[in-house]
Design goal:
By secondary structure, the protein is α+β, with helices and mostly antiparallel strands. The chain has helices spanning 22-28, 43-58, 63-75, 86-89, and strands spanning 11-13, 19-21, 33-37, 92-96.
Length: 98
């Protein structure tokens, strides 16, 4: 499951230290893997990293590995050196099985 909208990986800290949010809800519902964002990233950059991720997954590569490779591609981007800043590639996290 990929949720590429802004801040989908954030939750609310409740009494007792539990964090409630989309991440918890999807995992309790049985989703095996989840890709979510921790902060707002511009649409253009989100599209680039997500398009690369989906291409890798559709080529039957493991999801976690695919996303790591998509992040590395953006980090090493020669066409836009500003993409090397973590703001663009580190917002997303993949949790769950590969």
């Amino acid at each position: 499951m990929a949720l590429s909208a802004c801040k989908t990986g954030l939750g609310e800290l409740k009494r007792g230290g539990e964090i409630f949010g989309l991440k918890r809800s999807f995992m309790l519902a049985g989703v095996e893997g989840l890709l979510m964002s921790l902060w707002s990233v511009p649409d253009k950059e989100t599209k680039e990293i997500m398009t690369d991720f989906y291409e890798r997954v559709l080529a039957n590569n493991p999801k976690r590995d695919s996303f790591t490779q998509s992040q590395l591609k953006m980090l090493k981007s020669a066409k836009n050196t500003s993409y090397r800043h973590p703001y663009y590639w580190a917002s997303f996290e993949y949790i769950g099985v590969n």
